[in-house]
Every structure is written in C-alpha cells, then in structure tokens.
C-alpha cells in the first residue's frame, strides 16, 4: 500500500541557447518548450501536451491496477486525449479534457465499469480544475 504523503521532484534546466530540459533522475531528459500556438515549436514537448499525456497515462495505470486486481483479461488499450484551452472569463486555462479510450477485452461490461472506476480514482484528473470526460469503447476483439 502507498504511504501518504508522497513527494515528487522534477528539475528544469534552461541553457543560453534556449534549450529547456526536464529531468527526474534516473529517467531520460525530456526536451520541452512552448507549442507553435504560443510561438514555440512542434519539435519538443509542450506543457499542454505533457498535461494531456499525464491525464491519459494516469487513467491507463489506474485501469491496469484495477483490471489486474479484478483478474480482467485486457488484450489492448488505446487512448486519444484532447484538450481545449480557452480564455473565457479569465486567464487561459484548459476548459475541458476528453479521453477517447478503446479497450480490447472479452468482458465488455466489467471493462466499462472498471474504466469508470479508474476515472474516479485517477490522481491527475482529480488534481485538475478542468472537467475530464471519458468516452469508452470496449471491443470484444
């Protein structure tokens, strides 16, 4: 069982050449910066893409843990995360995040129920102000 509270740390280095690197040793560095929409490039990971990736990965990891405990045979999983940044009534922020999840599993109803439970317990989704919706599609094969 996890012990709370937990602390996490990430280091950000910016060099004179303008390169930004995220690190959390011993993991590999991730080059990051602004997306083209904010004057950056599509050659590095943006905060917006990292946030969507975090929500998507957290849902998967939570679903995996629940499926393993429930002894649910999952044959595949794919998630397309989409987010909308808006500036209505204040500073720019994500106004909604949608996760389109395809699960390959012979037990459709159990998989859908576990996916909804995973959404309920996803740490990253629970930490956000923007609503996160999950659109599941469970395929028998």
Fold and architecture overview:
Strand 1 and strand 2 form a beta hairpin. The chain has a domain of 93 residues: 2-Layer Sandwich (GMP Synthetase, Chain A, domain 3). The protein is built from 3 helices and 6 strands, in the order βββαββααβ. Strands 1-2-3 form a 3-stranded antiparallel beta sheet, with no helix packed on it. Strands 4-5-6 form a 3-stranded mixed beta sheet, covered by helices on one side. The chain has 141 residues and is an alpha+beta fold. Helix 1 packs across helix 2. The longest helix is centred in the middle third of the chain and has 23 residues.
Question: What's a concise summary of this model?
Answer:
This protein has 141 residues and is α+β, with helices and mostly antiparallel strands.
Task: Summarize the helices and strands and which ones pair or pack.
Layout: E1 11-14, E2 20-23, E3 30-32, H1 47-69, E4 76-86, E5 93-104, H2 108-121, H3 123-126, E6 132-139
Parallel strand pairs: 5-6
Antiparallel strand pairs: 1-2, 2-3, 4-5
Features:
alpha+beta, 3 helices, GMP Synthetase, Chain A, domain 3, single chain, globular, 141 residues, 3-stranded mixed β-sheet
Q: Note the run of SSEs as H and E.
A: EEEHEEHHE
Total beta strands: 6
Query: In CATH terms, what is the architecture of the domain at 47-139?
Result: 2-Layer Sandwich
According to CATH, what is the class of the domain at 47-139? Alpha Beta
Main-sheet strand order equals 1-2-3
User: What is the beta-strand fraction?
Assistant: 25-35%
Spatial shape: globular
Give me the secondary-structure category: alpha+beta
Question: What summary fits the major beta sheet?
Answer: 3 strands, antiparallel
